[in-house]
From TrEMBL:
Family: Belongs to the SufE family.
Domain (Fe-S metabolism associated): residue spans on this chain: 14-136
Classification via PANTHER family: SUFE-LIKE PROTEIN 2, CHLOROPLASTIC (PTHR43597:SF5), SULFUR ACCEPTOR PROTEIN CSDE (PTHR43597)
UniProt-recorded name of the protein: Cysteine desulfuration protein SufE
SUPFAM superfamilies with a match to the protein in the record: SufE/NifU (SSF82649)
Organism: Paractinoplanes abujensis
Entry superkingdom: Bacteria
Cross-referenced Pfam families: SufE
Amino acid sequence: MTDMPPKLAEIVDEFASAPRDVVLEMLLEFADAMPPLPADLAGHEGMEQVPECQTQFFLKATVRPDDTVEVFFDCPPEAPTTRAFAGILAEGLQGASTAEILAVPDDLYARMGLAQAISPLRIRGGTAILSRLKRQLATAS
């Protein structure tokens, strides 16, 4: 998949080719691996809430001088699917440029084959996370 950063494309391919019974385990691994917020963002200062998510979810994207993007996500542990979306984006977009992230397809989660494993409501939340992240980057450029 050439329309997304290489790390993210690798994750998408792994999910798309995984048996359905393994997909939920993979999601939990990403949920568990989501990096914690830095202390200066602990109160969600400067972060955007994603109201489309059923649970409280906050994000922030920062463009570094070299045009790579640093992303921050916060979601409670009681929402493992939503945390998994954040973990996938955190790992898959690490070191990516603004242009690479803006080019990520909006149907990312469908390409991963997640529609067969989780509810449409959860997919919509994940899609909203990506959309808001892209919007932050588009307005920062």
